[in-house]
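@channel sequence for tomorrow's demo:
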Amino acid sequence: MRRLYRPLYLIERPIVFTSLETAELTKYAANAFLATKITFINEMADLCEKVGADVHDLARGMGLDGRIGRLFLHPGPGFGGSCFPKDAQALIRTAEQAGAPLRLVETTHAVNEARKRRMADRVVALMGGSVKGKAIAILGLTFKPNTDDMRDSPSLSIVAVLQGSGARIKAFDPAGMAEAKKLLPDIA
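structure tokens (generated this afternoon):
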């Protein structure tokens, strides 16, 4: 393994040798932690909005603390993608099966799912309580910029709620339109 990964080690990428169980839990735990960090800043965004604070200044201030760091402190509609949701759920199931529930990770997952719905509800509220027959533009559909990856993208839930409320969705994503149309065929 050292020989195989030697090019990465030369650019200071450490290699940790451990058991299969620890390796699997390490990957799940790292992604669940980052998902928790995203969920935390999203909840702080909600609080900032209520009290008149600026979440971007708050995130910048938090990020200056070397123990926290600036990465993954960007508020948004929730996390998605191929790893965070799947790995958080896998960690939750592993913990349940072992009889050691992870309430923080369970709550992170639940709060993230609720946030997607709340984002759509906020749009409906901003439109006067009804979006029936209205055209709504959505810019960005993939779970992160500059990719065509739609796996568990928050936009899937948001668009479904808005369409279910009678809205016509006009959407654009610079890199993701082809993939988005496969999953959201009714978007224009």
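heads up for whoever presents: The radius of gyration is 19 Å.
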